[in-house]
Amino acid sequence: MFNGYGASYHEQRMQQLMEQKQLRDFMRMYSTLVARCFDDCVTDFTSTKLSERELACANRCTLKNMKLNERIGQRFAEESAKLMEDQAKMGA
């Protein structure tokens, strides 16, 4: 009962769901990063501006977490490629 239109609709819907999940994951990661770096770095609430120490800490914290997430993404891609390669070998 699936024609080309139905399959295309389902593919588009799956793509939309994947994009929504990626956006939620990114927002969760961003929110976690902000909370972690704020909690670790901001200690003086007597001023509306960050001190030099707080700003440096926040910059280091952000950079460290971004590098961590980049590395995790790389490892995930490496492991996914390896898994697909192993599956292809088993299917051959």
UniProtKB/TrEMBL annotation:
UniProt subcellular location: Mitochondrion inner membrane
Membrane topology according to the record: Peripheral membrane protein
Record Pfam families: zf-Tim10_DDP (PF02953)
This protein's UniProt keywords: Chaperone, Disulfide bond, Membrane, Metal-binding, Mitochondrion, Mitochondrion inner membrane, Protein transport, Translocation, Transport, Zinc
Molecular function via GO: metal ion binding
Domain Tim10-like stretches: 15-78
InterPro entries: Mito_inner_translocase_sub, Tim10-like, Tim10-like_dom_sf
Source organism, top-level taxon: Eukaryota
Keyword DNA damage on entry: no
A cellular-component GO term for this protein: mitochondrial inner membrane
GO biological process: protein transport
Function text: Mitochondrial intermembrane chaperone that participates in the import and insertion of some multi-pass transmembrane proteins into the mitochondrial inner membrane. Also required for the transfer of beta-barrel precursors from the TOM complex to the sorting and assembly machinery (SAM complex) of the outer membrane. Acts as a chaperone-like protein that protects the hydrophobic precursors from aggregation and guide them through the mitochondrial intermembrane space.
Quaternary organization: Heterohexamer.
Family note: Belongs to the small Tim family.
Domain notes: The twin CX3C motif contains 4 conserved Cys residues that form 2 disulfide bonds in the mitochondrial intermembrane space.
Name of the featured protein: Mitochondrial import inner membrane translocase subunit
